[in-house]
Amino acid sequence: MKRLALVTGGNRGLGFEACRQLAKNGIDVILTSRDAKKGQAAADELKSAGLPVTFHQLDVNSEQSITDLKNFIEKEHGRLDILVNNAGVMIDRKNNGDEYPSVLKAELETFRQTMESNVFGVLRLCQVFIPLMKKNNYGRIVNVSSGMGQLSYMSGGWPAYRVSKTALNSLTAILAYEVKDTNILINSVCPGWVKTEMGGPNATRNVEEGVDTMVYLATLPDNGPRGKLLRDRQIIAW
Ligand SMILES: NC(=O)c1ccc[n+]([C@@H]2O[C@H](COP(=O)([O-])OP(=O)(O)OC[C@H]3O[C@@H](n4cnc5c(N)ncnc54)[C@H](OP(=O)(O)O)[C@@H]3O)[C@@H](O)[C@H]2O)c1
């Protein structure tokens, strides 16, 4: 059975590479992006390499955009097997202007915007697509988190981003618990420090390495982990 995957923030970085790798695994991929031009161009690039990738617009902050996508998927496919919640922002430094964005100077607006994209968007997409997954009793949801959200290793700086990823992990655990009697496996992943626009040029991993555990979790067997945080295919501490 050919699986259908949806990736958020698929126009660049880890999201784009996840689309490529999932499609290379024979999965039909809907690459989504908030910017239609960039998203279409990214999907065309993968399509022209012979990969089964299509584009649909999605701004995870927009209720209308989420509803449009839901209607499209229900009408055209009637199913969704894999959801990769990859879209995310890290705006602490940009918003507070300092090289080291301290919690002592953080503005609530930075927290609000960060939570909106990194947590509330994921919540809404899960609320919309888990019922569809339940219909087929199959689903794999990958919430792209970060070691910066691990409570066990919490340190300073980038407070809005850190708090958003801790909250995302909590959401992963709550959702996974609520679907524990189904074949829907929901996990968080830390991709490591990856060379993307967000990670910057000094990051230690390339995007292929970064998406490895994302793709692993997106294609888990039925007895795979649920409600966990993983890095390098291993469960790590929250
Ligand atoms: N790179 C790292 O080292 C690293 C480490 C740990 C975790 N992560 C996580 O990995 C994920 C991907 O990050 P990345 O490194 O690939 O960063 P990136 O290159 O900055 O890409 C972020 C993606 O998210 C999209 N996005 C942001 N807000 C959105 C919205 N409201 N609706 C839809 N799309 C939105 C961006 O779209 P636009 O192009 O339109 O802005 C872009 O496609 C993020 O969740 C990030 O927190 C990254």
Please, could you describe this protein's structure?
- The protein is an alpha/beta fold and 238 residues long.
- The chain has a single domain, classed as 3-Layer(aba) Sandwich (Rossmann fold).
- Helix content is 44%, strand content 16%.
- It contains seven helices and eight strands, in the order E-H-E-H-E-H-E-H-H-E-H-E-H-E-E.
- It has helices at residues 13-24, 36-48, 63-76, 92-96, 108-136, 159-178, 207-218, and strands at residues 4-7, 28-33, 53-57, 82-85, 139-144, 184-189, 229-231, 234-236.
- It has an eight-stranded mixed β-sheet with strand order 3-2-1-4-5-6-7-8, with helices on both faces.
- A hairpin with a 2-residue loop joins strand 7 and strand 8 (234-236).
- The radius of gyration is 17 Å and the shape is globular.
- The termini are far apart.
- 46% of the residues are buried.
- The model has no long low-confidence stretch (mean pLDDT 97).
- Bound molecules: NADP nicotinamide-adenine-dinucleotide phosphate (NAP).
- Residues 8-9, 11-15, 34-35, 58-61, 86-89, 117, 144, 146, 190-191, 193-194, 196-199, 203 line the site of NADP nicotinamide-adenine-dinucleotide phosphate.
